[in-house]
Amino acid sequence: MIYILIIIAFGLSLWAQFRVKGTFSEWSKVPVHSGMTGYDAARRMLDNNGLHDVPVEPVRGSLTDHYDPIARVVRLSEPVYYERSISAVSVACHEVGHAIQHKENYSMLVARHKMFPVVNFTSGVAPLLIIAGIIFSSFSFLLLIGIIFFSAAVLFQLVTLPVEFNASNRARELMVANGFITNDEERGVGKVLNAAALTYVAAALISVLELVRLILIYRSRD
Predict the structure, then answer these.
(1) Catalytic residue among 83, 95, 185, 210
(2) For residue 10, what are the domain limits?
(3) Is-annotated flag, keyword Membrane (predicted)?
C-alpha cells in the first residue's frame, strides 16, 4: 500500500511541476494593468517596507527566482525581472515576501535558517547510511541512524510549507494594497502562486511517505 501511495505522490509531483510551468507560461502572456516589470514591483515593494538596502538582481534561467537570506538579495529570473506580466509581478512579489519575513524575523523562516546547516549535512549522509543498513542486515543500526538523519530533511520540508504560503499571502495582500494589480487581476496572481506552492506540497508528501516506508523496513528488520 505504501508503495502505491509513493507512486501517486510522485505522479502528483510531476503534475505539479508541469502545472507551475504551464500556469506561469499562461499568465506571462497577460500584461499587468499597472505596466510594472517584475523588477519594478520587487523594488517598490521592498522600498515600501523599508528594505531600501536589499538589491534586486537578474539571474539566468527560468523559475530560478529566490531570496538569498545570507547576501540579503532578491534574485529574479530574466523573464520575471524584465517582463510586464501577471506572472512576473506575482513571482517577484512572492520573493520579496521572503525578504519581509527575514526583516520581521518570521518564526518559521528563522527555524528553517537554523535547520539548514544541519540538514545540509544529514541529507548528504542519510542515503549512504540507509543503503548500508539495508544491504548489511547485521548493521541495522546504520539504517536507524539514516532514518533519523532523513527525518531532519523531512522536517525541513514541512517547515518550508508555511514559509512559502506566508510569503505568497503577504505578496497578494501588498500587491492589491499598493496598487500593483487590480482586483480583477488577483485571480491570475492566485493561480500563479498556488501552482508554485503545490510543488512544495508534493515534495513534502513524497518525503513523508518515503520516511514511513523506511520506518516500516526498519521495523520488519528489528
Answers:
(1) 95
(2) 2-221
(3) yes
